[in-house]
């Protein structure tokens, strides 16, 4: 048996705010949406393929210190796409970790930008090459593990 991630589902506190954020940062299109009170949700994707579902059924901020999700990572083709995403993230005023694009570990060419969505869920956009021109913030430890 083989497995592949089908889509990711996230609880959000404000569907409209999260929709705006994910559409601007990732370029997702809305594939489906419900405005029914108590059952608001949205299906987001690229080229008609479902990638992310947002469910308005939470309050407060994401509790990174509790067991569960650590972060979500999205790969893009090149470091220029990471830098474009960083510009959008900065423009939205999102929490940005490591002050921009950094390698995954010391000596690594792969790397990305690490940030939070409006509910504090930790996100990463990375490329397999082109990030090795800066020092890694965590030395030999994986950058994505410590933000």
UniProtKB/TrEMBL annotation:
InterPro entries attached to this UniProt entry: Fosfomycin_Res_Enzymes, Glyas_Bleomycin-R_OHBP_Dase, Glyas_Fos-R_dOase_dom, Glyoxalase_1_CS, VOC_core
SUPFAM superfamilies per UniProt: Glyoxalase/Bleomycin resistance protein/Dihydroxybiphenyl dioxygenase
Keywords of the record: Metal-binding
Pfam families to which the protein is assigned, alphabetical: Glyoxalase (PF00903)
Top-rank taxon, per record: Bacteria
Residue span, VOC domain: 4-128
Record carries keyword Metal-binding: yes
Name of the molecule in the record: VOC family protein
Organism expressing this protein natively: Planomonospora corallina
